[in-house]
Amino acid sequence: MRRTTVFGLLGVCALLAGCLGRTQEGDQARNADAKEITLTIVANAVAGGKNARGANWLQNWVIPRFTEQQKAKGVTATIRFEQNGAGDEDFKTKVALDLKTGGGGDIIEVDGIWLGELAQAGQIKPLGDVVGNTDWDGWNQIPKAVQGLGEFEGRRYGVPMGTDGRVLFFNKKLFAQAGLPVDWQPRSWRDVLDAGAKLKALPGVTPIQLNAGTAMGEATTMQGVLPLLAGTGRPIHENGKWQGDSEQVKDVLELYREVYGGGLGDPVLQQEAKGRDRSFALFSENRIGILLESDYFWRSVVEPKNGVAKMPDRDTAVGWALVPARQPGAGVGGQDFVSMSGGGVRVVNPNTRYPRQAWEFLQFLNSAEAVKESLAGAAQLTQRQDVNDEVLAGDPMLTFVAEEVLPITRYRPGLADYPKVSAALQQATADVVAGKSPDEAAKAYRAALVKAVGEGNVG
Predict the structure, then answer these.
(1) What is the pLDDT of residues 101-126, one digit of tens each?
(2) What's residue 391's pLDDT?
(3) N or C: which end of the chain has fewer CB within 10 A?
(4) Burial of 455 from C-beta contacts in 10 A (0-12 / 13-18 / 19+)
(5) Is 251 exposed, middle or buried (0-12, 13-18, 19+ CB in 10 A)?
């Protein structure tokens, strides 16, 4: 009797295992042959409001063309666009709640920095687990580093929607006055400081703008601390730990001390509520020599016609250079130069009724034709190298970012604790600007970090 029961249980277990295996495969292929489908795409964009260009593209170009494409295959497709115009955090909360309760759109646009948090919560799953085979010729057009925007812990969760890159911008006119080369490319932090020392001799000029303090917010972290940390060879998060008061963090804070304690930067500007906007204006007025920023600065800030701090002679007066590591070869992965990037990612909802069709829609959204159309004639970096080669051909700065920066860039860790870590890093730079030593600021940073994420999560 006991023997029969044991073999019976083994048989049931084997049957269940087989069923589970087929269930997973069946989930990926469910409704694969459907002749009528409904897909919803969710984005934080609204016609006439937030991210209006993206909303118009989805509503007026993507949906009609994808519907036509499906009709030609004998499929009647209904594509719905769920528009949102909420603040980023409110949108994130909505997306997480929808996913948690088994709802939400089939395709969802999320900030890349949310990816890890959603993945750890089990609210999104690796793309292959949801849709099956993810072979696509488009991957060959997205640089490996850019693909990292849609990855977490070595697994691919989605397709990047676009990205940016950080560089050092410099004023060629001021460089010429200071006897510096107008084709400047520093190869170390010391080279940057030495250029700053020469610019210091020019009256009324702030040599270096390196975002610092809490008033600058995330700009301090993304246009300051994180690229500099990458230049020391250690990212802020590795092997499951947040970097504490390490030698690398102290090296970054020491650079801040040399800039702001050495009269190369303006400490008051870092404390102003709109200090970053003020720095933009000062650069356009030829009063800042070197500024670390994203390509947004070029295409939207000092853009001659529509920029927020228009610079009529931008194309001849503004230079750009790669952000050097602390010294050659000292950057992450042994790199000589480093960058940080941000951007959005499109993911497929694990709860979709049409996983294969959702993957097909995702490929369409990221096709060369669709990506080019999404720009509406603007010169802007995209996730696709072939599109960049075409649309950026007349813009040497953005071409530089596409060809030289994107292949070496890194992304913020998409973890729930990141905002608290970022705030602690901002405060550490504020402490140095206010006169604390790098050691003191690093010690206080570690204490804040431990309080925020727990001792066991600090390396």
Answers:
(1) 999 999 999 999 999 999 999 999 99
(2) 95
(3) N
(4) exposed
(5) buried
Using a cut of 0.90, tell me whether the model's pTM lies above it: no
pLDDT tens column, 130-172: 999 999 999 999 999 999 999 999 999 999 998 999 999 999 9
Quick check: 294 and 163 in contact, CB under 8 A? no
The answer to whether residue 10 scores a pLDDT higher than 70 is no
* Crossing angle of the two packed helices 438-453 and 247-261, in degrees rounded to 10: 130
Domains for the chain: give ranges and CATH numbers. 36-160+343-374 (3.40.190.10), 166-340+412-457 (3.40.190.10)
